[in-house]
Sequence to fold (242 residues):
Amino acid sequence: MCTLEQRGRVFVLTLTGDGEHRLGHPLIASLRSAVASVAAAAASAGPGTALVTVAEGRFFSNGLDIGWAGTSRPRLQELVDALRPLAADLLALPMPTVAAVTGHASAGGFLLALCHDYRVMRADRGVLYMSEIDIGLPLPPYFVAMFRAKITAANALRDVLLRGRKLRAAEAKEMGIVDAVCPGPAETAAEAIKLAEQLAARKWDGGVYASIRMSIFPEACKSVGIVEESDEEKRKHFASRL
Fold:
């Protein structure tokens, strides 16, 4: 399903194999376990870590496991509900995160990429695509909250969600959805790791980093079940860091 390795201060989470990396229960559970391992390792390592998520093959992730769900709406809802805590795990992770989009990222796979702080995408192949408008499925509320948080240009958000536009890397960068474009998959992974190393070298306090991230995207965090601190808790947390 996926592997996790540590390269210095950078954790590399790889979706393995040549398949579509469909987000079914097994892969989601595997990813959540890996992210939990990263969080635990970071806690013992101290300040200055980062995560890169990358995938083998033609796909970063082609979305939820529609093959398993079939025409069953309850099964599809199961997958939607299962993906939500993975999004929360990534939004609360106490370190910078980088998605190396080395292939197609569609629907839930697009969401998975957006859950990271930075995105690096290959130019020669692959698209970002939200298929829901084309296949007649409504968007779960937390999908909408995440896309609104991460795609801030109104025209770009419209084209992604209401037009079903398939974005190549250059277009996605122009829209501000990805941060860097690389020629192919190897260069994309290498650039993502390089960026993660630069971020880890800053040796930021992970708890502070996660707190600031969650304060930047309050609606997205709330939508995936992250409980916002009260003003009093925020004041106490701030005072304890002084």
